[in-house]
Design brief:
about 10% strand; three-stranded parallel sheet; six-stranded parallel sheet; alpha/beta
Length: about 350
């Protein structure tokens, strides 16, 4: 394909016309700057029509690094005996929210491993406490696979959104990344249960995970088209020293940015974060993600004492700054590329 043909097909995507698998595969893996620059500019234009130059912030609170699962890529997998484990209690979570609220955060994200300590009753108590103190805020949970009944209880207690990345939509690839105790079918079913319960649902996948081929990434896109999530989070695979994939190579920056832009074109209304993993892969990864069509960043509100312990991969971008300093730094970095951090719940624009 020549330059004009690429541009024509990208513009068709921007007009909500789907693309065939062959073209998507070419676009995902494309490294020609004249194509990728046009792709990112087009995606940025789509997001600006709906969201302007606003960047939504989410206050991330990593509540536990205990996990019952043993995913081969994850640094907090249960087989990692070299990790100092921690849990953040209800009072401490509320203190993090208090600090975040004063700084302008209006969405709090409670993220953790699949930790049985956080029963429905405990989580409902935490959610009730947050909603009582901050009724104008949204609460997002990212706590893995739970039962449909559990999801409903948590939604009824105040959870607005739920993030559950499917990681890969291909069964063969899923088996390369996960032990036999886990099921792609169940993962997908959880996502549909969440939608049926009334959550704003987020999913997503790793880019460059071991064994991944472009065809698997196209399957990811097609699954997301079926799911139609409100939020889509992608990020590069990054190895962790205490996993079976410790020697595997990192995900590719260009491919991550290409996919961010493609997602913006396929899902113009979606909330798409420029992830911490992207910021870890490249010093300006978050800015590059925003310029490719992302519209969310997630500063860390976790207690400083535990931030480095939530270690999903090596060398996690962890500033060590207090939340106020980190937010101010992000504001400057976004302003430098022509965008602005806004104080808002940051709901999906319909």
């Amino acid at each position: 394909m020549n330059e004009e043909q690429y541009k024509e097909r990208i513009l068709q995507l921007a007009k909500r016309k789907d693309a065939d698998d062959d073209f998507l595969g070419r676009l995902i893996t494309c490294r020609d700057e004249w194509v990728t620059s046009f792709l990112y500019e087009t995606a940025a234009g789509v997001r600006q029509k709906l969201y302007g130059r606003d960047v939504y912030i989410r206050g991330l609170i990593e509540i536990s690094n205990f996990c019952r699962n043993d995913c081969y890529y994850c640094g907090i997998r249960k087989s990692n005996k070299d990790l100092t484990r921690y849990r953040v209690g209800e009072d401490e979570i509320l203190e993090c929210c208090k600090e975040g609220y004063a700084l302008g955060f209006r969405t709090f994200v409670l993220q953790g491993g699949e930790d049985g300590y956080y029963t429905d009753d405990r989580l409902c108590s935490i959610l009730t406490g947050i909603k009582k103190e901050y009724p104008d805020c949204a609460v997002t949970l990212s706590l893995g696979e739970r039962s449909r009944e559990s999801y409903k209880k948590l939604h009824d207690a105040g959870a607005d959104r739920y993030l559950l990345r499917h990681e890969t939509a291909d069964e063969t690839h899923y088996r390369q990344l996960h032990p036999a105790s886990l099921s792609l079918e169940n993962r997908k079913q959880c996502l549909f249960h969440l939608k049926e319960t009334g959550y704003q649902v987020g999913s997503g996948f790793m880019v460059g995970s071991p064994g991944q081929i472009p065809e698997y990434l196209i399957e990811d896109l097609r699954f997301l088209q079926e799911l139609q999530p409100a939020m889509i989070g992608i990020g590069p695979f990054l190895p962790h020293k205490d996993t079976p994939f410790r020697e595997e190579k990192k995900g590719d920056l260009t491919m991550c940015l290409n996919l961010t832009a493609i997602l913006r074109l396929l899902f113009p209304h979606a909330l798409i974060p420029a992830t911490t993993a992207l910021g870890t892969l490249h010093s300006e990864g978050r800015e590059l993600g925003i310029l490719a069509g992302a519209n969310v960043v997630m500063p860390n509100l976790s207690p400083l004492s535990v931030r480095k312990l939530y270690s999903l991969y090596n060398n996690k971008a962890c500033t060590g700054l207090e939340a106020a300093e980190h937010k101010a730094l992000l504001e400057k970095r976004m302003e430098r590329i022509g965008y602005r951090i806004v104080t808002s719940r940051g709901d999906v624009v319909k």
